[in-house]
Design brief:
coiled coil, mainly alpha
Length: 163
Amino acid sequence: EVEEAVARIKLTDGQLEAAVSRSEALQSQLKEGAVRIESLEGQLKEAAAQIKLLQGQLKEATARIESLQGQLEASAARVDVLEDSLASEAAAAAAAADSLRAEMAAKADAALAARDADAARARAELEAAIDDLSLQLSAAAAGAGDADALRTALGAAEAAAAA
């Protein structure tokens, strides 16, 4: 029995030594895990700081985008005003051009009418001069054939025709 008890004690001692060895290994792994956890916590803090920095940059970029959108909208409004002004000026210029065309056409019509009236008056004067010349020629031929009267009448007819 003693031998059995000694054998059991030795077995228990071996188990105890194995348990202690396992316990030491687990403690070592636990320390390594704690070191890794601390390292990961540091990395997590760095990542959180980077996230905050990026969030700040995102807010700044968003504010700049909103500012640029406001400027773009203001520019678009100015372009609309300029387009309206340009359209108004174009309409006014077209109306002025139409008015000028109408005025020029009226002046041209008046000038043509005056020219036609002058031509009609000149034609009437020429016909009257020709009639007068015919009378003078008839009188000269009937009166003794006065050559001077004939020349005078002919000169008057030429002058009237030239006018």
